[in-house]
Amino acid sequence: MTLSIRNQIPGTVSSVTAGEAMATVKVRLAGGQDITAAITTESVKDLGFVEGSEVRILVKSTEVALATGPVQGVSIRNQIAGTVTDVSTGGAMASVKVDVEGGALTAAITKDAVADLNLASGSPVVALIKSTEISLATA
Fold this sequence. Notes:
Layout: E1 7-18, E2 22-29, E3 34-40, H1 41-47, E4 54-59, E5 65-67, E6 78-89, E7 93-100, E8 103-110, H2 111-117, E9 124-129, E10 135-138
Antiparallel strand pairs: 1-2, 1-4, 2-3, 4-10, 5-9, 6-7, 6-9, 7-8
């Protein structure tokens, strides 16, 4: 299946915590970072996700925020350190590519945010992604 979602990172399920309707699935990336996805319990069962399952993390670039360092006092569980590899700006928006251990991410952010954060190739950043914005696919 081909998807328009640019951010597709392989990983391995490290734990599944199922609730009545929703579950949290923790996925370990090749670089050792942990990502938490909040998906339906039904999806966990239908896709057969268990500890050790190989999966692909999917997240739209518009759901990736960037910070210049770790953020405290925020409910966002996924904070992944990386390095900017490319910044492409347009009239109002920018596409920022970030290398993370075990993969790469693209963030679609405003051109003003790029300027305010002084982002350029080589800049250290932290990608912020809400667990509810992460989808999982079988590998």
